[in-house]
Amino acid sequence: MIVRGTITVPGDKSITHRALLFAALSRGSCLISGALTSLDARSTAAVLRRLGVGVGALRRGARVRVVAPEALSAPDGPLDCGNSGTTARLGLGVLAGHPFRSTLTGDRSLRRRPMRRVTEPLVLMGAGVEPSERDGLPVTITGGRLRPLRWELPVSSAQLKGALLLAGVVGRVPVRVREPAGRSRDHTERLLRWFGYGVTESDDGWIGLEPDGEVVPFSMAVPGDISSAAFLVAAGTLADEGELRLPGVGVNPTRTGFLDVLRRMGGQVDLENPRIAQGEPVADLVVRPAPLQATQVSGPEIPGLIDEVPVLAVLASRAQGTTVFHEVGELRVKESDRLRLLAENLRAVGVEADAADSTLWVTGDDRPPRGRIVTEGDHRIAMAFEVLGRVRGAAVAVDDLGCAEVSFPGFPAALRAVTGAGR
Ligand code: S3P
Fold this sequence. Notes:
By secondary structure, the protein is an alpha/beta fold. The chain contains 13 helices and 22 strands. The chain has helices at 13-24, 39-50, 85-95, 108-111, 116-125, 158-171, 187-194, 226-238, 257-264, 309-316, 338-348, 379-388, 411-419; strands at 2-6, 29-33, 54-55, 64-67, 79-80, 101-105, 128-130, 139-142, 149-152, 175-178, 198-201, 206-210, 219-221, 241-250, 268-277, 280-288, 296-297, 322-325, 352-356, 359-363, 370-373, 395-398. The strands form six sheets. Strands 1-14-16-15 form a four-stranded mixed β-sheet. Strands 3-4-2-13 form a four-stranded mixed β-sheet. The two termini are 14 Å apart.
């Protein structure tokens, strides 16, 4: 495979969700450029519209205008979060401080994902949540006056941390949370600082919010999503020749664990033209093909590459030796049980791989991968194996590449544009 050219990746999913949510709280008119237009971003936009927020159409290349009312209003029906865990969890945080009842639901995958980790601390803050006995969606939340919170998170999760910080913002109460191991992405904290909130981080992992800022109307530009870029970086790495440029990608250090691990494996990725935009580091990525060696990925590294385990596992299947991903149990409650699906699909294309409890092993192979991939509708599984299917001699059939629309609109065309290969 030859990979060459310059391609702009879609806007960052995490930052897009947060920009839309903060805009909804701004009591004014906001403009967001570079926003992601994928199904997940549309879920957040749709939920906000049902709460009385004017959210313009999400169209590629166009700015989105958000017109926020004085206060969010009770929805006239369930809030459908689609496939988006971020919409549901951050949404719960926002709704906890609003004095009305809303029911959040989602697709089959999202309904089985754990929500109690979010609702439990929100109940402590003063929100009413039904049902309390079953984990997952649907969940009905009745917001109200909130109390300050001090809470140790059971897992390092930016969705959970972000939900609690947002509850602090809407409830105007201090919040202190601690993540167990490794820092999850800090986009919420950066945006809060941008709005003048006092956000502190201590060496022992405590993050503190003082409710002393104000979310005012704003304009912002969303950088490219490094989690989407990762699939094209993988294609550029596995290529036989060429050079790929991905301009304007967010390189927030809580998101670049993938690049650290890839470089440790021998990957050749340079960051050019580094800059800061609205408090977020951004750079152009330049990728060249490289032979890879296996590595060990440790527990504390996982929050910084949580969404990149599928693509790293695929890269590991082309590396020399056995790569081990430690403490990746959280992947079992993502859009699919990603550990099981990764091991099964790697074996289906002739690679030695295994997943047990919270560990994943992948032994690299240089024979062409051949076989059928079952995605269970998981966008990142689909994209990772579609990239693997581009190595020389491969014959990999992904059962549903359409699910890539969840996070990367136009992924097949983007991959085709840089590899020149058809589908
Ligand atoms: C996200 C956080 C991550 C990630 C998800 C987006 C966010 O989930 O997997 O794609 O925007 O906060 P966790 O924080 O639950 O690991």
